[in-house]
Design goal:
single chain, mainly alpha, two-stranded parallel sheet, 3 helices, about 55% helix, globular
Length: about 80
């Protein structure tokens, strides 16, 4: 899961990062954060799957998580 690896690398450099996953990848993200020494790192979880959503549904879903992503980037 490249997004977790990228987030770890950014965070090591002092650059805030946020991971957005779907619920199907929760265990994988948690495992990879733990393996990279960042157990408990926050992430934004969306319902799975998102690939079948319409453009408008995806837009609504994205708007719902903007505050959570912003919060993680400020932490």
């Amino acid at each position: 899961m490249c997004s977790v690896h990228d987030t770890v690398e950014f965070e090591k450099r002092g650059i805030p990062a946020a991971v957005i996953i779907t619920e199907a990848f929760r265990k994988t993200a948690v495992f990879q954060f733990r393996a990279k020494g960042m157990e408990g790192h926050r992430y934004v979880e969306l319902p799975h799957p998102v690939s079948s959503l319409t453009r408008e549904a995806m837009r609504e879903l994205a708007l719902c998580c903007v505050d959570e992503v912003a919060s993680q980037l400020k932490a």
